[in-house]
TrEMBL record:
GO terms for cellular component: cytosol. Belongs to the transferase hexapeptide repeat family. The keyword Transferase applies. It comes from Paludibacter jiangxiensis. InterPro entries: Hexapep, Hexapeptide_acetyltransf, Trimer_LpxA-like_sf. GO terms for molecular function: O-acyltransferase activity. It comes from the Bacteria. It holds the Pfam family Hexapep. This is Transferase hexapeptide. Keywords: Transferase.
Amino acid sequence: MQSSFINILARRIIDAYFRCYTNIIFWLNHVKHGANCTVKGKIYIRNLGTIEIGDNLRANSGNRFNPIGGDTVLRLNADEDAIITIGNNVGLSNSTIYSTRAVIIEDDVLVGGSCKIYDSDFHSKDFAERRNSFFHGNEGTHIAALPVIIKKGAWIGGHCIVLKGITIGEHSIIGAGSVVTKSVPPNEIWAGNPIKYIGKANKHAE
């Protein structure tokens, strides 16, 4: 009985520590956020645009808090004039979100360990521009970028890559290790590389 009480007390103290840590890190990086946000572990933030997070974010960052492998920290990257919007009751784990225009994650979304969400190709399809960007730092003008939207209640399994211009519908599920190259309708399960339709996500949707 006493041991159980001590464990509960210890967890509450640790949670309070991480909430305080999260508030400080978000404040230092100009991240707008709601109440009760907790990031367990060190987080990397590069905010040249706008990052807004709702209430009750739960995030793991580091092998200690999610030992499944992949990236060791959670990364939020917003380029100049870009936005990252994360809704209420969202769970993230050792994931990377990189926005050059917009990445929007709605309420009640779960993003598994080591997922990557990109709204840009990062490099031009033109060889000369791509070479100049890599060796001389000239980014060029033909880099494709389109917003990513993950709708309410979606679940993205671990180690997935979500590419530019994708919308994942409400309550849909993306299987672990998938490369999301096309938009997914609501209430469906998709998986694979590239993804394909597997079935319905909810019994009422069958």
